[in-house]
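re: ur question from earlier - yeah i can do the single chain one, its not a big deal. heres the input i used so u can compare w yours
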Amino acid sequence: MKTVYIVRHGKAIHATANVADADRLLTDTGVARTCRVALYVAESKPVIDQIISSPAERAYATALIIADKLGYQASNIKTDEKLFTGDDKDTLDIIEGLDDSVNTVMIVGHNPVITQVANHFAEPKLESLPTTGVVSVHLETEKWSDFKRAKVIQNFTVWPGML
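and the output i got, formated as tokens:
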């Protein structure tokens, strides 16, 4: 059994001419909402083997907050540029390429791609995964290379407005 957590980054400041898109920070509201969702996720005491985040500041900050609430070592968070610049196929390729010793992965990225990835697993389909939204599923497979054919068992979908 493999488990995937698909996470959209928290609410960030708006893009301006003075701030590059990759450097946009979480707002205070974004931090608070991310903490609330992270505590919800932590209630189930998940054991996360790998967190992979977009290197963009808002996504990485979201990953750091969640990692802290889950007791995951921040220095173990990996970043992948494809989670910032790529498409849903790139993200699914990242998941498919995971080492089979990883049983649980959390992917932190951006819309619209992160919603497209979540909809690969989620039922019902989402129009748009809200900021700090999380879709968690179990996959009936032992190999990441087989995850696209695995039976999906919905664990939960949550976002700040639900809490």
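The longest strand covers residues 151-158. not sure if urs matches, ping me
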